[in-house]
Amino acid sequence: MKTVVLAYSGGLDTSVAIPLLKERYDYDRVITVVADVGQPKSEIADATKRAEALADAHYTLDLKEEFVEDYLFSAIKANGLYEGYVLGTALARPLIAKKIVEVAESENADALAHGCTGKGNDQLRFEVIFRATEFDVVAPMRDLNLTREWEIDYARDHGIPVAVSREKIWSVDENIWSRSIEGGELEDPYVIPPEEIYEWTKSPERAPEPETIELAFENGVPISLSGTATPGVALITKLNEIGGAHGVGRSDNIEDRVLGLKAREIYEHPAATILLTAHRDLESLVLTRDELRFKAIVDAAWAELAYEGLVDEPLYADLAAFVDETQKRVTGNVLVRLHAGSAVVVARRSDFALYSEELVSFGESSIDQRDSEGFSKYHGFQSRLVQKAMR
After folding, report:
1. Domain 179-349 classification at class level
2. Quick one: three-class SS letters along the chain?
3. pLDDT at res. 172
4. Annotated active-site positions, please?
5. Which of 11, 49, 381, 384 falls 20 to 30 Å from 179 in CA-CA distance?
6. Higher pLDDT among residues 357 and 36, named by residue
7. What does the domain layout of the chain look like in residue ranges?
8. pTM of this prediction?
């Protein structure tokens, strides 16, 4: 009995993959795994029901807490953005892949499978984990060079229920941190996205009156919302709800994929936008200028590795160690005003603040302004010498 374990989302690609793994690859058993990383409960329930009807065995794993605490908190501390892309999908894939491997080991399986195409990033994010094992790796969509139109026809002919149609061919990936929408007419970068594609965020034009919330951070991690201590999953869920109501967290990016292709990606990420904005602002209050300058370089390198799914790359751990060291003082409170699609920091405080109102004030101060004259005489000294030499 040849057995393959499939990372299953409940969508078109992975639903079609189940019979294809038997028809084209001669596997006797297909075991599906749905990873709950914060999708709507109805989506998890639908995917589970569909998998149980199509596969030989099925697992549904609740990974929300692990995803938030082991992956998303690290992203917040590293201000995780890649070319403006919120690292939600990218960070979820390695976690899911590792769980697929665990299931395969427990089931004495022969192979691991995913439903990714040969054009995107997710194939790499799954396989960098898969190929570190002794299991065979199967990617039907890529291996068979399939198109979504072909898959839609195949699903119809085989009685496989899917939500995608030729009219609404968008591909959606969702977890607690972000919701991505791509495909169909959205592949034309000159097409304005229709309002119907958005589910998490209200149109900024229909946003309510401004609302100000307070976030508390401890060692770079959010711990409370408006004075109430709130665990990570609950806090992110609530911020998605609050921010989404104000139209916060929409982005429309031309993204450079790992393979070199440019792709148009549309995202919704209210909580991520709010938390990353607040965290970055708090860092500006407590970290030194040199720390901020160097950390920006580290953050960018960390984000690129995370985007590529290289969470087991030694450099990823090295960078994370530096980031964690800087977060020992990133503790304090931030007030964020939400309105019409924007999340703007309006106030902040911390016991570790490097800001001194007494020193910087235009009023009375212990600083004698005359002391800075000597500094000003030498500031730009070499550039003045160059200008003199060029005359």
Report:
1. alpha beta
2. CCEEEEECCCCHHHHHHHHHHHHCCCCCEEEEEEEECCCCHHHHHHHHHHHHHHCCEEEEEECHHHHHHHHHHHHHHCCCEECCEECCHHHHHHHHHHHHHHHHHHCCCCEEECCCCCCCCHHHHHHHHHCCCCCEEECHHHHCCCCHHHHHHHHHHCCCCCCCCCCCCCEEEECCCCEEEECHHHHCCCCCCCHHHCCCCCCHHHCCCCEEEEEEEECCEEEEECCEECCHHHHHHHHHHHHHHCCCCEEEEEEECCCCCEEEEEEECHHHHHHHHHHHHHHHHHCCHHHHHHHHHHHHHHHHHHHCCCCCCHHHHHHHHHHHHHHHHCCEEEEEEEECCEEEEEEEECCCCCCCHHHHCCCCCCCCHHHHHHHHHHCCHHHHHHHHHHC
3. 87
4. 13, 93, 122, 171
5. 49
6. 36
7. 3-170, 179-349, 362-390
8. 0.93
